[in-house]
Each structure stands twice: as structure tokens, then as C-alpha cells.
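Hello Y.,

Per our agreement to keep a running log of every chain we model this quarter, I'm adding this entry. I've kept the format consistent with earlier entries: sequence first, then predicted structure.
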Amino acid sequence: MSRSSLSLACSVLAAGMVALTGCAASNTPAPAAPAVSPPTTAAAGGATQQPGGHHGGHGSPGDAGPSLYAVQSGPLGVVATDGAGHLMYRSDADSADPSTSNCSGSCAQTWLPVLVAAGHEPELLGVDAAAVGRLTRPEGTTQLTLAGWPLYRHRDDQGGLQSAGQNGADGIWFAITPTGDKATAA
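Predicted structure for the entry above:
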């Protein structure tokens, strides 16, 4: 990620935090802005990824875990992202009640499940912890959910709040809001 892209991502994140803290009627100080990691060093689910490399969204037991931030994205409004500015997505092919992922095989190679290792909690900013859950995938990994919806990121998303898959090839993939709703263009 170039310095200008990283700067833009940090600016957007800071603007989103200002908007979120402006809505709160609390006397507690706003949390400090989280550091944004370049997408070439940390990917969804905490898995390490090298430039040009591929991973299946699988984290290793030593990873700290993913981040979920509420960020103002512009045309999509407030959306959920990871710490590197990758948009989080939900699929209409999945179920929120009960939480069920129907994305495996080649689907999970394009739409990377957001995984979390046992014993790790995701870092949350502007996302209600009560809305965050987990489900066990068929291969035994643990995927994060938001309002029951399994979370994914698109493999081509380079961060910086760029939509790489809104409405997807099948019209079933949507960026997700911090409350689990579909993000829609204004």
C-alpha cells in the first residue's frame, strides 16, 4: 500500500471515528484510532500474506485475531472493515438464524472467511460486542459473524475501503454494516 493510500485510509478511519463519537452521548473519552496495517503484512483472520501471495483466510494459533471497525466509506455509508481497511461482506446464500456459512471450496477462495483462533477476541471499534459471534466451519475453523451473518472479505480487496465485490457475480454479496445490515449505495 502506498503512503498516500495508507494516509487516505487513516483519514477515512479518523473521520469515521469522529462521526461515531459525535453520535455518542457519553462522558467517556473516545478511543484512540487503531493503527492500520498494510494489507501485505496482515490479512483477514490474522493470517500472514506476502505481496502477490494467496491465503485461504486461515489464521494460525499465534495470531492475535482480526479487527472489526465501523468506518464511514462514502457511497456505502458506515460499513464494517478489518484493521487494514478491507470491507467485510455477507452473503444472501448464508443464514443468520442459525448462523450458517454456505461458502466453501472455490467460493471460499474468492470470498475469504474471516477466521479467529480459539481463545482470541477480535478488536472492535464502533461494533457492538453483543452483535459479534462465531460459527464452526465444516473444516473445523472458527468464522466470525456479525448479527449472525458469517463475515468474509474479497480476495482482490487491497484495502483502503475499495469495494472489490459489492453485489458479487451472483448479486448475493454485500458489504455489511456494523449492525449486520446490507450496505447500500446512497
